[in-house]
Amino acid sequence: MSEGTPEEQVRQLVSAYQQFQAEAETLARQLSLSQMTMEELSRAVSTVDAMEKAEPGEEIMVPIGSGSFLHATLASTAVVLNVGAGISIEKPPAEAKEALTARKADVAAGSKKIADLLGKIEQEMAKIESILQKAEAARSEGFV
Amino acid sequence: MSTELPPQLQNQLAQLQQLQQQGQALISQKSQIEIMVKEIEAALKELETAADDQIIYKSVGDILIKAEKAKVLEDLTEKKDVMDLRLKTMAKQEERIQSRFTQLQDQLKQALGQAPPRGG
């Protein structure tokens, strides 16, 4: 930024700003996905929590979407947990809850890293904005 | 500007762009396979710590089908071996593309340095 004519410097700043903006948009999307995953994991943990207190043979209502439910009878309180690569393992509710909570902690740690990075990029963008505003003000004064 | 370049240079430039696209596609495929390998490794780790009589399911489309631990372990290990092999092949391909790219880039730089400006 220290080299070149003022016009070149402005062009470089605008280009850097656009790059930061694209990066910030990608990070914001990742952050939103992480938050959705965390919410999903929280819902799973709450359901498993309820399963710990349930007994096989209990009447339950199974959601089928749009706030609609079907009557069902609980065959088992075991939880079938997806472990990736198309494989799921049946686990007792307590173990499943532990695994889901650990996953949630991992996602939360990832989210924090993304949010920190996004914060830094936003700071850099704010700095560039401020420099560009000053440059624009100086340019306008020069014309008066 | 490219219309002012000699045809040979234009051809080399097109080759360079094609190599760049090939390299990018390869990197993207490689990273997808790497993610799949990591997922398989995580599943294998979970399965290895599971008891032999633990109930395991394999997903087939939207449904889950009960499967034997030993069979699932065998299938996943085989799948991982195939993917590891593909990754090795892709790494060699990437190396070849990279080397050809550098070679072509050097040739172009040299040619552009020597080429007299055309059209004024």
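qc> The two ends of chain A are 26 Å apart (CA to CA).
qc> done
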